[in-house]
Structures are given as C-alpha cells and as structure tokens.
Specification:
The complex is a heterotrimer of chains A (542), B (319) and C (234). In chain B, 34% of the residues lie in helices and 20% in strands. Chain B is of the alpha+beta class and 319 residues long. Chain C is mainly alpha-helical and 234 residues long. Chain C has 9 helices and no strands. In chain C, helix 8 runs antiparallel to helix 9. Chain C is elongated. Classes of the chains: A mainly alpha (542), B alpha+beta (319), C mainly alpha (234). Chains A and C meet through helix 6, helix 7 and helix 8 of A and helix 2 and helix 8 of C.
Amino acid sequence: MSTAPAEISVEPRVHYLNVDYGIKSWLLTTDHKRIAMLYLASITFMFVIGGAFAVIMRLHLIEPTGALVEPETYNKLFTMHGIIMIFFFLIPSIPAVLGNFLVPLMIGARDLAFPRINLLSWYIYVVGAAFTMYAVVSGGVDTGWTFYTPYSSTYANTHVMATALGVFITGFSSILTGLNFIVTIHKMRAPGMTWFRMPLFLWAIYATSMIMILGTPVLAITIVLLALERLLHVGIFDPNLGGDPLLFQHMFWFYSHPAVYIMILLGMGVVSELVTCFSKKRIFGYSFVAFSSVSIAVLSFLVWGHHMFVTGQSIYAGLVFSLLSFLVAIPSAIKVFNWTATLYKGSVSYQAPMLYAMGFIGLFTMGGLTGLFLASLATDVHLNGTYFIVAHFHYIMVGSAVMAYLGGIHFWWPKITGRLYPDTWARFAALVIFIGFNLTFFPQFMLGYLGMPRRYAFYPQEFQVLNVMSSAGASILAVGYLIPLVYLFWSMRYGPVASSNPWGAKGLEWQTSSPPPTDNFEETPVVTEGAYAYSSEEAPVV
Amino acid sequence: MPWWSGFPIHPERGSTIAEGVDHLHYFLTAITLIFTAIIFATIFYFAVKYRRQSENDKPPHIAGSLTLEILWTLIPTLLAFVTFVWSASLYFRNSRPPEAALEIFVIGKQWMWQLQHPEGPREINELHVPVGQPIKLTMISQDVIHDFYVPAFRVKKDVLPGRYSSIWFQATKTGKYHFFCAQYCGAQHAGMIGWVYVMTPVDYEEWLSGGVKGESMAQAGGRLFGQLGCITCHMPDGTGRGPSLEGLFGKPVQLQDGRTVPADEAYLREHILNPRALTVKGYPPIMPTFQGQVSEEQVLQLIAFVKSLGTEERKPAKP
Amino acid sequence: MSEAPLALAHQFDDLDQQHEAGSLGMWVFLVTEIMFFGGLFAGYTIYRSLYLEGFVAGSHILNIKLGATNTAVLIASSFTMAMAVHSAQKGRRRAVMGFLLLTMLLGFTFLGIKCVEYHDKYVEHLIPCESVACSNLGLQFAPVEQALQEIQKQHAQLAHVELYFCFYFFMTGMHALHMIIGIGIMTYLLLMARRGKFNAQYYAPIEVAGLYWHFVDIVWIFLFPLLYLIGGRY
C-alpha cells in the first residue's frame, strides 16, 4: 500500500459537504469535518472584528495626541482586541479548525472519540463568544486582556463580568477539544500506526492538548475568583482586606503562559507537514522534533513568573524563572534547525503553503529570540510594559502562528473543499502579508527600547515617526489578510476541482477523496511505513 | 551631529547602569539578527539550490544526524547560559541600593505621581534629583497597580497598593528625562507621565531650600504623632502603655507569636494600619488601627518621624 | 451478540475500544477537575499560611459533627457506587438500579446536611459579602457572639476570618455543584438501566460515572481536613 493513488480529477459522488444541505444537518452534525467548518466560520468572524479594532488602534496612533478616539475608548479597543484575538481566534484556530478536520483523517479513523462532545464544544464556544460580544456592543471592557487586579476587581466600571463570563465559558470549549484529541490519539490509531509513525502534526496536537487540559481549568478558577471579588467585594485580591493583587497575576499567568504555547505548538506542527511535503523529503530528526514538542509543553508550565519580574517578587524567584525561560527556547531552536535541514537535498517547490512555512521559520526565529531579551532579567526591567513586548508577541502570534494557520488552510484547502485556489494570488497575498507584518511590528521593537510604554492612548512627540511606520505597515497587512478571504471564497464555487492528492503529499488524509466522504475512508487504512516516506525504496539512504 | 542622531536606537544613557544594560541588549540584538539572518539565508539557499526540477525528483532518504542534533542543542544552550549569567549578575548588582542613598518617596494614584522629599518639598509629576548621588525611591500606590519607569536610567518597578516597593539609580549627567507609568491603570494611564530633572548638587540644594518654606517630612510626622495621640502611649521614656520608639528604626523586634522582624518601613506602615497583625511581645494588643484615618502620604511622614527618633535629627514632638 | 452493535458508536471498531476510550476520556476529564480544584487549593494554601489564626478561628466555628457525618455518608456512597459498577459487570439489572438509587439517596443526604450547615452560617451572619446589595439583603459578615468569642480567642482579624469563609463557601459550593451534577448523571443512568440498556458486555457509562463519583468523594476527603480540622481542637 502507500503509493499515492492515480490522480483522477473526478469530483466524488457523495462527500461530507453535499451529503445533506439542510441547516439542521449542519447545526446538529457530529461529523468532525463539519464541526471544523462551523469553527472556521466563527473564528473568521471573530478575527475580522478583532482585526477591525486593531486597524482603528493603529490609525488612532498616527497622531501623538491620538487621532481618532477618546482615551477611554482606546483602552477598550486594545482590551477587546486582545481578548477576541487570543481567546476567540488564536486558541481555537489551529486546534478547532485544522485539528478537528485532520486528526481522524491523519490517524485513519472514522471520527474523533467523542463526536457529540465535539459539537458541544462548538456551541460552548458560540455561547462564550456571545457573552463577550454582548460586552463589546454594550460599552466594552477596558481592563486589558490580562484583567489585572485591583483595577479589574475594584476600580473598573466597564463590562468586566460579562467578558469574564464569556472567557470562562469558552475555556470549556478548549478543554473538551483537548480531551477529545488525547483520547482519539491514544485509542483510535489505524492498524500499524505506532506513535513514532504518526505525522508530527499529531505530536503537536497531543502536546497542545496536554496544555489545554492542564492549564485552562486554572484560568477558569482565576476568572471565577475575580468575578466573586467583583460581586461580593470580599478581599481575595484587595490589599485593604488582606488580599494580594499579585496572587491574581500568578494564577492568571500560570495558565496564560502555557496558553501561548497552545498557539505556537500547533503552528509548528503545521510547518512540519508543509516543509516535508514541499521538499518531498522526510523530516530531518523526526524524534527530536517530536520530543521537542513534548518538552516545550512541559517547560511551558514552569516559566510563568517571567511576566512578573518587575512586580517586586523575590530576586531568587526571578533567577529561577529566568533560567527556565531561557531553557524553554532550546527545543524551539532545535525544531527550527531541523526544518531548515529538511530542505537540504530536497526537491523544493514554492507554492503558497511553502511560502507561509518559510516565512514562519524566519519570523519565528526572530520572535523567539526576542523572547530572550525578556527572559533576561536585566533587559526585561527596561523592556517590560513597553512596545518591545507587543512586538515580541506579535512576531510569535501573528508572524508565526497566523502564518502557519494560513499555510495550513491553503495546504489542506483542496482536501477540505475539493477545490483548488489560484496559487498566484495566494503567493502574492503571502508576500503582502510578510511585508506588511514586518513593517508593522519591527518598528515596535525600537519603540520599546526607546522607552514607549504599551497601552498608551497618546504618547510623547518623539515616538511619532516609528508609530507612523507601524501604522503604514498595518494598513498593508490588513489588505494582505483580505485577499485570501476573497479568493478562498471564490474558489469554493469556481475553483478547479481537486484530486485526492494535488500536492503529492504523504499522510493518510491524502489517501481519501477530496472532499472526504462522511466516514473518511472507504475502508480502514493499514499503515506499513513511517510518516513522510517520500523517498521510494530505490532512493539512496543517507 | 551625525545624520543618525535623529533616529536613535536607545534612550539617553542617564544612569550608571544604562551602559551595561545597553551592552547586554546589543549582544542579544546581535544574536537575534545573526541567527535570523543565518536561518533566512540557509532556507533561501536551499530553496534555490534544491528547487524542484521535475515531478519525478527523488530526494535522498535522510533521517537525521545525531552529531548535528547535539551540536545545535549544545550551542544554543551554551549561548543561553552565558546570557543568563551575564544578565542575572547585572540584575543582582542593580537591585541593591548603595548604603548612602538619598531617599525620596513616591505615591502613585490614578492618574498622577506625588514625589516627596524628606526635607519637605513635594512635587507633582516632577522629580528633582542631584547628579552623581545614589537615589532610592520608596513607592506605594493609593489605588491600583502602577509602575514607575525611567527609560534613560533603565529602571522600572511596579508600584503596588498596600505594600512598599523600591528602586534606586544614580544619575550620571544633568538634564531632563521622561518618566512613565508602565502598568496599565485605567483611563488616563497614558497621561501619568512626568520629568526627572537631574541637577548639579549645588543647584539641587538651592532648589530644595528655595520655593515654599514648609516642614520636613519628619516634622510633619512629629506633628501628626501628637495630633493622632500616638504620644500618649509611645512616650519617649517608655513609661507609656506602648514601647518607646527611640532608635527603633531598623532594629529587630520580637513579636508575640515568636517571630522576630526588622522595624523597617513596611513594618511601621503595617503597625499603623493593622496593629493586631504585629503585636509586640510583652505589650497588650490594644493599639487602635489608623486605617482610613491617615493617607499614604501621612503614613510616610510618620515613618520619617520615627526614623528620626534617637538620631541627631530628632525634632521634639509637640502635642 | 445482537445487542452489541446497537450500543456501538460508529466511530469505534468494537465495544472494547469504545469502553477504553470512554474510560480514558473520563480520566482525562478528572485531571482537568484536579487542576480546577487545584487552583482553589493553591489560593487556600497561600492565605492559610499568611493568616493562620483567621483560618483556625473559622475552622473552629464550623460544625465538625456535621462535617464528619457527611464524610461518612460520602464514603458510604462511594461504596454503593462501586457495588453498582460491580453489579453491572455481572449483568444484574435490579442490583444496579438498587445501588444507584442508594448512592443517590446518600448523595441527597450529604446535600441536605450541607444545606443545614449553610443555613446555620446564614443565621450566624457568617456569609462573606461586603457589597451594598448584600447588606440590603441582610447578608453581611457580622459573626454572632459565640463565633466572635472563638475569633477573639485565636487573636484573629475579622477580615481574615471572612477570607476563610470565602474559601469555605466557594470550595464546598463548587464541590456540592459537582455532586448535584453527579446525581443528575445517576438519574439518567437509572432510567437507562430500567430500560435494560446495560448488560455484562455493555456497562461503560456506569463505570465512567463511578469514576466521576469517586473523584467527587476524594475531593471531599481533602476538603474535610483542610476546612474542618485546622489547628486541632479541645
């Protein structure tokens, strides 16, 4: 088995999209592929809203005195931009869209372990998003996405409760998704698919799911305590009543730091798939990449204190967190080297997914290394709370995670929709996004070192030039994101019909038709070789 | 002036630690740019050199290389460790104020800074300091968490409610430097900014003694000590119901519950606002709390007064 | 042989795989619950170490007899739940229903005793709340004479005792919520058992619910000493 089937360009008879067109068949579906599509629609919607807030913010910051909105409004904008993008776009994006769609296909199963819980997780997401959107339209919230006490518990008079409730509810969506993935990967792999024959995307899903199930409950309890304090005015985080505002920060970051690894680990998983397919080579150092994913997940729980170096926590605690934060960078570096080495003596092609992957590797190197400035105690004192932090996390979350997400969407688009998108437009958009992104966020590194604090609705004159550069970049980036929206939609109706394996990729998902039938495979596949077995037996073994 | 001075990459170096921090920053910048360039260049090179010639290309089956894995694990680990040690030692050194630091007190509140010199002058959103002398800022917030940040000095610390935090710096050249609030604190967070004026010692003395003639912090504290009735229990000769406070500051105190704690600013503040938590051994727990009756500023004045007791600066308290 | 395919969900190859997946799923879910309660326990630990007298005072005010009774009740209910699972493995329908019912009864007993305790605290003005809305409802934290004596005996501060009761109500309340959900699940299982859905080949839902119930029990085993037994008595 495992030679790619002949490339026939015939659209299959019945598949998961056309099996039933009724609205109930979508809203009550238990098919993981349809649920992935439901998520795709919702998170795209939230991305547009969060992105709109970002555009307003960047336009506002062209003027040192603020060009567009009142400071109170600006404060609400950056808060809601952060909350929407993190909780309602980034955290669900790759797991809930690509993960839900691909995990059963990649392991050769008919569905996830718990399809109804999967649907429930989408509804929970929608309810959480509804609460948050209610907060947005009824006046917004201005605590920053970090909800630091005592501002959020005692002083803020915006819609903290509704937003906190929305985030709390959506957390359960994350937990259930992670739970589903873990059980599925443990119990439902196709015959012959051992752990070390799994594609690295599945290793990344597994590591990410670990973080989701271990970290999210702590965020849940933190938010509940915040809500209780706001409701009852008891002193959990209020120093006047014996409470400690820093306890909130410890509990909050205990989840929220691992959370950022939720966002990036899966991006890395996608890149492993893209780099191998578009070099037509197996990954360099498979087990090292796999174990790196797991060690990143483990280490991510030990570094939360690096968000609190200037809070007055003990110097010795600072030392421990700093050292661990340096160490967590190492597995990421190992991955970057392994991906690069995969291209060596490969057969490299430059379709859009590969452009996104290559952009990811470069931008992630930069974003990750700028993290070292923040892990380093002496420089973090100067950089904390400035635009350097903003630049660092946008390099990781936008320059890396979103690019990986887009690369994955493009790569698996033929499988998901059965259509090909126009690759010239896709490559053009990738380039526009790359340029726009760097122009937006590189100046922010410089702003940070020069001392401009973050979350400022207006700023001293001397920071204007860099701000204008950043805003110019943001407008280019916004255009770059709109282009795929257009042609991907277009392709669903007018794109050329895709074969089962248009990229010539390895992986079980490519062994079935595009789009797949509801039960994924005509018959359960049997796996006889490792992942990324691109070279045939005659090829020289090096 | 060189053409690039209009496009600075670091703030002015206004303190003794600024240059050290900048050097570490440049080292990290170099590592970042070099490695990013290496990765980008390698990818670009491989992508061009090994571009796909035909659909029938058969790349070789390369599983990996243990040597390379070890190499590119050890080298980053080494670099990380070197950076960590360098940074940690810099941080350690920068975190301990020298003994003879001049103390100034900072109260942050939404959305302004009040800076209090012990000699009496009080500033709003401005801080005058002498050059070439270590300055220790003891800070507290009256409401939410703020943060005091002077980019030119490369110092920053959160300013917390209910607890003192402190930073120190030594300015190296006269001039005027921004300070900012660097922890989001509500509507006018961006407006909670001001200027540090670094002056020559002579100018500073002149500035201190000029302006409005007022009482020093210790004098104000002494006045409060009488007004609030503290003097009735805390007699200087120790005959009152509470202990004498002569020479107390900085000494260890034994508490009822067995702990021994130093009588520093935090201790004194806690004692004024929450005496039951710190009942001193051998004394009845009858000291009333002054929470709600004194502002943070007044607490600092009382502390300044207690500090002055048993030293030459002591000014007698008049009820 | 012909009942098995009815219970087998389409994504699984056989009942064994389905059973294992269900069990693993419940274990993973319980891990998330441990992290959830763990956050609460962490907060509790920090404040207890800071304000020990307040926590001792609060703990002494609680009714240890009711707490101990509840512990016995819950342990008994874990036993009856285990018996329900055992009976299901043996395919004994009536025994399954009986033991499930017994477990639910014991669960209700626990909740009933909890209600009594909460009511007592309400009467003694020990509900922690400082907001205006609460005082309008007469829900202030103003301990009655007997409780105040204990507080003074421990030299504790009122604010700290209030913090203790915050944790007491939230932790036991969260626990009670999980019990109510557990009883709800058992009601559903009871109905399914009555309709003969379970047999010696297919009883996974009962086993999985048993896991959940044991977890709820274990949380209480931690809560009881941490809340009721601080600082020794007599």
